[in-house]
Fold:
Amino acid sequence: MIIQKMVVGAVMTNCFIVSDEQTKDALVIDPGAGAEQIAGYLHSNELQLRAILLTHGHFDHILAADRLRADFRAKVYCLDAEKELAEDDNLNAGRMFRFRQTVTPDETFRDGEVLSFGALCCRVIATPGHTKGGACFYFEQEGCLFSGDTLFFESVGRTDLPTGNAAELVRSIKERLFVLPGETKVYPGHGVPTTIGYEIDNNPYINEEGYLY
Structure:
């Protein structure tokens, strides 16, 4: 599996293009902006976009979704609990930052569901806290996790925007992510990659007492 990171948009969001080298199947995770840049990579590598996956519906993770959906006829997916936020520019913080952008998912998935798109397969892990319907995508065979804005390198997602909840975020990280193998590579929605083991040992916002803000 090939992972291509593109840092896009005003908030420096990580958009990931995941592809299979042999079959050319591809997924775009969190197309926060830069539709032409993303499309250019897909075309130049002769990739077939199978789906657009959203870790959550904040404006900075969806700005290029409609354009890519139209150009590649690929469906947009998010967790069922996130549909309302993705479709509301007040809830998804777009209006707050003057980005009046929403997206209506073609389909929603559920916690624990296994998503298969050609040669690419991942498990959905619901991680409410940053938003009510936030989710991570765990590619178990490849040992990697796309964590959106739930877990960052030595940090965690903010919880002061609509539907955020600090206690839920801590619970999601400790009970749903920190149980994964320590060597699992974590690709977050902003910043640099990390691993589950590193964050268990070094994340200053999570400890036995919980949230340290």
Q: What stands out?
A: The radius of gyration is 16 Å. The chain has one domain: 2-211. The longest helix spans residues 166-177. The helical segments are 35-44, 65-72, 83-86, 166-177, 196-202.
